[in-house]
């Protein structure tokens, strides 16, 4: 079993409730109303020998992703999700990797909006520091891979697609992720994340979590240096990311997905911040 895959499992996906986040500048990117001519939604964002990646935009697809998450979380001893997890918030997009009809990898990208982020439940204060300085944050959550089918390339593909969606389409400046303390080293070595939150207990999965952050500019710089080489001697996953030509093609597909998501803009809610 690939050690990279075995150690890769996010432990969160919590719906934020209560106090709203502070506002950032007017959202950029491609708004839903910008596409006047209906575009055909591609079945797959990415097709590779051995696997494909798609946007899980149907209930049937999200059921498969949820089943994978529950299976991998139960294997790790975490609490699992109810069917409520199948309801995708309007600021979220779920990606899934599959071979044939078998879904073996999934993650969800959440763009900061009036609905907040899942990580606000434990780390609102830390995230508000970023918001107050004008950063536009997003998060990766509901991350799960079946190690029997996964590889470094698949993991890198999902992360790079998440970066394209967050950075190229929505102009996010920072990516957040909550992980089990045992997995912090993986994210630091492989992707350059830095810890910005202390360990806390996530009641939803009954396990500890730590908040990590990486800037999208840092990710872009690493992609520019390493992407496309598939260097097995590199500790970083960035050598498995897409080439510049592939990124251009994938970015052109993303507005179709962005038109399905509808993050609610942050309003004037300074008074709600404590």
Plain-language structure description:
The chain is an alpha+beta fold and 274 residues long. It has one domain (3-16, 38-262): 3-Layer(aba) Sandwich (Aminopeptidase), CATH 3.40.630.30. The chain is 32% helix and 20% strand. Strands 1, 2, 3, 4, 5, 6, 7, 8 and 9 form a nine-stranded mixed sheet that branches. Helix 4 (152-169) links the parallel strand 5 and strand 6. The radius of gyration is 17 Å and the shape is globular. The N and C termini lie far apart (46 Å).
Report helical residue fraction. Answer: 25-40%
Give me the count of strands: 9
H/E element string? HEEHEEHEHEHEEEHH
Sketch the major β-sheet.
9 strands, mixed
Give the topology, please.
Blueprint: H1 3-6, E1 46-48, E2 51-55, H2 59-76, E3 92-99, E4 102-111, H3 120-132, E5 137-145, H4 152-169, E6 174-179, H5 184-191, E7 194-195, E8 200-202, E9 207-215, H6 216-226, H7 244-258
Parallel strand pairs: 5-6
Antiparallel strand pairs: 1-2, 2-3, 3-4, 4-5, 6-9, 7-9, 8-9
Helix pairs in contact: 4-7
Write a concise keyword list for the protein shown above.
single chain, 274 residues, alpha+beta, Aminopeptidase, 9-stranded mixed β-sheet, 7 helices, 32% helix
Describe what is shown at a glance:
This protein is α+β, with helices and mostly antiparallel strands. Helices cover 32% and strands 20% of the residues. A hairpin with a 4-residue loop joins β8 and β9.
